[in-house]
Amino acid sequence: MSSFFPSPISDLARTVTVVTDDAPIAYTALPNGTPVFTSGGVEIGRVEHVLQDPSLDLFDGLAVKTHDGLRFVDANRVDRITTSAVHTTLSEDDARSLPEPQGDEVFDADPDEYGGNGLSAWFGRMFLREHWMRRKD
């Protein structure tokens, strides 16, 4: 006699995915505070933030908080990113000579920030758009 309902064990085996501590993840899912390790397994520091250009889907590297301050790990030195750690190809000597991050921060403009009917939209129209500003002659 066949059953209308499928076997729960066979369905679970096909649909459940187990995520282990070493499951690889994308740089976009990397949380701040994740430990960063050298190729020898020595912890360099913790992820302060991911340096990226989301509009180009470009991973530039990591800003890592170390005992010596903020340091830059280039993307080509990142071997793999997992749910529990970032593993690099850096030796301990390489890690000691990491540079500080360079350049200015980049901010994305939000054209809809001053749109709409709210109070902040009203202030945007009144004070931040050129046609609403009094010209100085």
Question: Which helices and strands appear, and what pairs or packs with what?
Answer:
Layout: H1 8-15, E1 35-37, E2 43-53, E3 58-66, E4 69-74, E5 78-81, E6 86-88, H2 92-96, H3 119-128
Parallel strand pairs: 1-6
Antiparallel strand pairs: 1-2, 2-3, 3-4, 5-6
Give short descriptive properties of this protein.
137 residues, alpha+beta, six-stranded mixed sheet, 17% helix, elongated, disordered C terminus
Number of strands: 6
Number of helices: 3
Q: What is the strand content?
A: 25-35%
- How far apart are the termini? 93 Å
Tell me, briefly, the overall form.
Answer: elongated
Structure explained in plain terms:
17% of the residues lie in helices and 26% in strands. The protein has 137 residues and is an alpha+beta fold. It has a six-stranded mixed β-sheet with strand order 4-3-2-1-6-5. Strand 5 and strand 6 form a beta hairpin.
Short description:
The chain has 137 residues and is of the alpha+beta class.
